[in-house]
């Protein structure tokens, strides 16, 4: 008896197949025939997509986690002197 060769689909390929059903409204039967899949496998991929879909909406990094500091604004000393002298002459 011959060994059954298992095919492996990448995450991108799985998503593309499920999207064709959900967005393009291709039937599951047609997609399974086209890609030599069992319908149960297709529905497992779809279930995984829905169960993990919130990850697509999560922020990559939270604002609190950012290590960015606002630059310190420094006024040149000659500018301050010019403003003070201008105010004094008013």
Provide a quick synopsis of the model.
With about 90 residues, the protein is an all-alpha fold. It is about 50% helix and about 0% strand.
Report on the structure:
- The structure is a single chain.
- By secondary structure, this protein is mainly α.
- It has a domain at 9-52.
- The protein contains 4 helices and no strands.
- The protein has helices spanning 11-22, 28-35, 39-52, 77-88.
- Helix 1 crosses helix 3 (39-52).
- It is rod-shaped and about 95 Å long.
- The N and C termini lie far apart (103 Å).
- The model has no long low-confidence stretch (mean pLDDT 82).
Task: Set down the secondary structure blueprint.
Blueprint: H1 11-22, H2 28-35, H3 39-52, H4 77-88
Helix pairs in contact: 1-3
What keyword list fits this structure?
rod-shaped, single chain, mainly alpha, 90 residues
Compute the number of helices. 4
Q: Kindly state the percentage of residues in helix.
A: 40-55%
Shape: rod-shaped
- Please report the distance between the alpha carbons of the first and last residues: 103 Å
**Which structural class should the secondary elements be placed in?**
mainly alpha
Mean pLDDT: 82
Radius of gyration (CA) equals 30 Å
SSE ordering: HHHH
Which blocks of ≥5 consecutive residues have pLDDT under 50? none
